Amino acid sequence: MLHIDRCVCVDCTFAEMRSLAERKKLDFKGISRETNCGMGCGLCVPYIKVMLRTGQTVFDEMLTEADVDREIRDAASEAGGRRSRAQGGESSRHRSAGSAEGSA
């Protein structure tokens, strides 16, 4: 079983990176700048992205950037669909209320 919990190039754990990101309000570029993680072999990049998005700091499977980018796109697309449906429902209610007022 895999236990992936750090950038091996600089021996910095994802838990340490999460703490730093929370404390200094850092995004991926900020974490890389502060720790040099993601600037060596690059294998930690997808894990850092997931850690920043979810808070997860220990992984038991190999991740690739393509996996993470696809997951982020899918989540954004799903969230966009929910927003559109919510806004569409709200607009219809406003139109219905407006029509009722106009006909009264």
In short:
The chain has 104 residues and is mostly helical. The chain has helices at residues 14-24, 28-35, 45-54, 65-103, and strands at 6-7, 12-13.
Overview of the molecule:
It is a single chain. With 104 residues, this protein is mainly α. The chain folds into 2 domains: 63 residues, Arc Repressor Mutant, subunit A (Orthogonal Bundle); 35 residues. Strands 1-2 form a two-stranded antiparallel ribbon. A hairpin with a 4-residue loop joins strand 1 and strand 2. The longest helix is centred in the last third of the chain and has 39 residues. The radius of gyration is 21 Å and the shape is globular. The relative contact order is 0.13.
Please describe the topology of this protein:
Blueprint: E1 6-7, E2 12-13, H1 14-24, H2 28-35, H3 45-54, H4 65-103
Antiparallel strand pairs: 1-2
Helix pairs in contact: 1-3, 3-4
Primary descriptors:
104 residues; mainly alpha; Arc Repressor Mutant, subunit A; 2 domains; 4 helices; 65% helix; globular
Across the major sheet, the strand order is 1-2
CATH class of the largest domain: Mainly Alpha
- The averaged pLDDT comes out at 83
The tally of helices reads 4
Give me the count of strands.
2
Shape: globular
Helix content: 55-70%
Instruction: Name the poorly predicted regions.
Output: 90-104
Largest sheet: 2 strands, antiparallel
How much strand? Answer: under 5%
User: What's the number of structural domains?
Assistant: 2
- Rg result: 21 Å
The CATH topology of the largest domain is: Arc Repressor Mutant, subunit A
Euclidean distance between termini CA atoms: 69 Å
Per CATH, the architecture of the largest domain is Orthogonal Bundle
Which structural class should the secondary elements be placed in? mainly alpha
Order of helices and strands: EEHHHH
